[in-house]
Predict the 3D structure of the following.
Amino acid sequence: MPRRTAPAVLSTLLCALALFGTTTQAWIHAAVTTSLQPVTVDVTGADAAPAVTALGLVAAVAAVASALGGRILRTVVGVVVVLAGAGAVAAVLAVTADPRAAAQPAVGAQTGVISGGGEYAMTAWPWAAVAAAVLLGLCGIWLVLVAQRVRARATQRYDRAPLTGAAGPQDTAATGQDVTDEGSTSAAGASSTPPGETQAAEHADDIDTWDALTRGEDPTRNT
């Protein structure tokens, strides 16, 4: 996992676990009256809003998956996390809007009585769940932005111009042409001596050699 995406992934995982943790606490204190005596039932978030528990687990698993995946997977996970956060907020607000209806299944399971009477007091944990869900949605947006930023950096890296030190085929051809031109110039300079002067020098050398032989001298001694 790249270091640039590690903070976003870790924050997403922590917010998802925090959201899940709030559902293990009592959200509603229900005081109901049975045929025998008054009973107080503590309704947890998992009983009052099972969807919040499920969404917290989904976001946590998605965060772990994004740590093992690539850019495309992180983008998908970011979108899923945003949707999970929004869904969790909606589910919690539904509980706060009607705590009686949210607590009735748990109260009926513990007391065996389903009654519309009684007092249903909210605790602070549903609002903590809202805060965790909002932060979770922001972390999902963060994941998407980080994934897009990594994509932009990768695109810029592969779009850079090639190194200027490398000579292409045209440069090589131009260099070869220059070398050829220089060689042609040198050859032209070397052959610029008139043919008559060359023949005269060779004839003078032959005369000197013949005179040395006539005098009984070795013409190759001074060579």
In short: Confidence is low (pLDDT under 50) at residues 157-169, 179-191. The two ends are 81 Å apart (CA to CA).
